[in-house]
């Protein structure tokens, strides 16, 4: 299993995760669209914050379910705990070393219409379509 490393811009916050990155998600909700993030999902067993825990700021809005983390120093958002699966992590692949986004299958998530998009995604996963 491949280990990927990443960080925020100033490198105070660094992290790693295990797994093969073949697909990612681009969300058009109000915050993800402004961040320009491309997300890859992983779990606690495969994700580790290596440095900078005390340098992280937490931002929550709306339902207060998702946890959006950013570096207090440079402002970059390297990872979050998403509303659709708050026990999971999503890593901003733009913060990961050596990831070529043009080579990935990027699935669109209509976060602008979050409720309907979440229901559709969860149904697709339950049926094995995703």
TrEMBL record:
Matching Pfam families: GFA
Domain CENP-V/GFA: 4-115
Keyword entries, A-Z: Metal-binding, Zinc
Transport recorded as keyword: no
The keyword Phosphoprotein belongs to this UniProt entry's keyword annotation: no
Family per similarity comment: Belongs to the Gfa family.
Protein's recorded name: GFA family protein
């Amino acid at each position: 299993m491949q280990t990927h490393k990443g960080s925020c811009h100033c490198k105070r916050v660094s992290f790693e995760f295990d797994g093969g990155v073949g697909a990612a998600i681009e969300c058009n909700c109000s915050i993800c669209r402004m961040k320009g993030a491309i997300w890859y999902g992983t779990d606690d067993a495969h994700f580790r914050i290596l440095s900078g825990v005390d340098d992280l700021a937490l931002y929550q809005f709306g339902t207060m379910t998702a946890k959006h983390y950013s570096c207090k120093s440079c402002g970059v958002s390297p990872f979050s705990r998403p509303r659709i699966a708050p026990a999971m992590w999503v890593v901003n692949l733009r913060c990961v070393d050596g990831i070529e986004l043009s080579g990935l299958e990027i699935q669109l998530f209509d976060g602008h219409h979050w409720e309907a998009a979440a229901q559709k995604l969860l149904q697709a996963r339950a049926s094995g379509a995703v």
